[in-house]
Amino acid sequence: MILCITEKPSVAADIAKILQANTRCEGFYEGNGYCVTWTFGHLCTLKEPHDYSPYWKSWSLSFLPMLPPRFGIKLINQESIIRQFHVIESLITQASEIINCGDAGQEGELIQRWVMQKANCNIPVKRLWISSLTDDAIREGFKNLRPDTELRSLYEAGLCRAIGDWILGMNATRLYTLKYARNRQVLSVGRVQTPTLALVVKRQREIENFIPKDTWELKTLYRNVTFTAQGKPFDKEEKGLRLIEQLKEFPFTVTDFSRKKGSEAPPRLYDLTSLQVDCNKKLGIGVDDSLKIIQSLYEKKVSTYPRVDTTYLTDDIYPKCGPTLLSLTQYADLVEPLKGRALRKTKKVFDNSKVTDHHAIIPTGQPLPSNLTDLERRVFDLIARRFISVFYPDCTYEQTTVMGEVDKTRFKATGRVILDQGWKAVYARDRQEDASDDETKENAAPETDAQEMPAFTKGESGPHTPRLNKKTSQPPKYYTEGTLLKAMETAGSQVEDEDLREALKANGIGRPSTRAAIIETLYRRGYIERQRKSIRATEAGTALIDTIKVDLLKSAELTGIWENRLRLIEREQYSPQEFLDQLKQMIREITTQVLSDTSQTTIQPK
Prior knowledge:
By secondary structure, this protein is α+β, with helices and mostly antiparallel strands. Helix content is 40%, strand content 17%. It has helices spanning 9-19, 49-52, 79-94, 106-118, 135-143, 152-180, 193-208, 237-247, 272-283, 287-299, 318-327, 332-335, 374-389, 438-443, 481-489, 498-504, 515-524, 539-547, 551-554, 556-570, 576-595; strands at residues 2-6, 23-25, 28-31, 34-38, 44-46, 73-75, 97-101, 125-127, 146-147, 214-222, 225-229, 252-264, 395-406, 409-420, 461-462, 465-472, 528-531, 534-537. It has a 7-stranded mixed beta sheet with strand order 2-3-4-1-7-8-9, sandwiched between helices. Strands 15-12-13-14-11-10-16 form a 7-stranded antiparallel beta sheet, with helices on one face. Helix 6 runs parallel beside helix 21 and helix 10 (287-299) crosses helix 13. The two termini are 55 Å apart.
């Protein structure tokens, strides 16, 4: 008998149907030489401190840091989990081979291997690796099962992540709680949650300490076109007014006039973070809820595996894109212009070197089921339109630049005229039912603000009307859930450019699949709170960050380095043992530093 172990009952049902294991039993399906069973996500977890030593059961500074010589796992103490584990354990003793059908990612690999390890599995294991749950994808996956050894480094990276979180979380939480907390309140400190909280506190401090500054920008109106003076704005209005009086005596002279054609490529396909950001920005969906919706679309077979951090597709997906586009019947008007010619193929979309386990999130080509919720349909709309748009031509425009001069003061004006909407047509909602909906504005691709320009002749001159434009500097904006996700992805760097964002992902903090949970954890522990769409740090959250003096615990950049090393472990380019040894040394140094603090700092959590 071949035993298939999936990560949840619904996936087991899908796989059992394909394998014709049609007999439903208690905790599994069987038939056609197969048994298909399931976990409920994590059945096992790392042992707690008291499982290693009775001395670690009580919280005491004298026993820190806690560093077991060897980490172990245990079953989660929950009746349904224990019962299902015994089903799996019994089936393993009867099986000749196991097919690991867990989610095809680092966390999925860890979940399944822990269960098999706990059940003392010693029979051959193969791996089902698929990017969607459609019947065709499952059949293809079973034809191309991977050796279990190929995924060993993926498991090791997940194991190092779990142990690293244990080492820092268990020790630092006890350390800071015992040293600084009042009234037996727990101060939660974590490898990812603390630098994330530090980002929120830092931004809040920048806003609170911001001092607005007024400046005056010199502009002039010539032939109904507004020109802006080159150089720094005036720090005092009087300086600008004096110059205006002087410039009124001289004509405006055009010194240069040029027109240049340009183009704007379609936006990249979605990875999980960018999709969650758009769900938050355009649809007002919180990051935790958006992850559930995106996961549901995957489980309902209409979109591909969601927990990805790449915006690229592999070359072998290209031949399937045409049929996928044709399957999007509700977007027939947008797909129509793509028919009858080869689909566009660029390196910004198709690049094997940028895809490891899974490709970007795209539609699977399956018909939309009738049981999709309204929010699921709206999120699918984001995915579908993004997928369609990458096969459209670039948006082309004509950029006009005019340079002028008034008595040696130089001015500049620019204008842009769209020549061909290209991919932007995908976002021009023309359905009548959307005509008055705010969603039209939210989903439309951003246009460049620019004025239309008449033709100018170099050397022409004439009267003009100079004026001052007052500007008051603005503080940075509070994080929203969406912008905080982006900040986690780029280790706090403010990045809009898509190419730079891709480069910074290597040192992002957290994984795409866990960032939403980290934000929810900070809410739950009272370190941050929602104020409308903004995220604010609470007094307890601010006090905790102020108390933590160790940069490695709260620096997004430094934590990003650890995240990058976990990715290198996954690619067999970094030693798991070295990673853990460094974390152990780090917690020893942190413990020494905190214990030597003679201040009387205390924190009262919310």
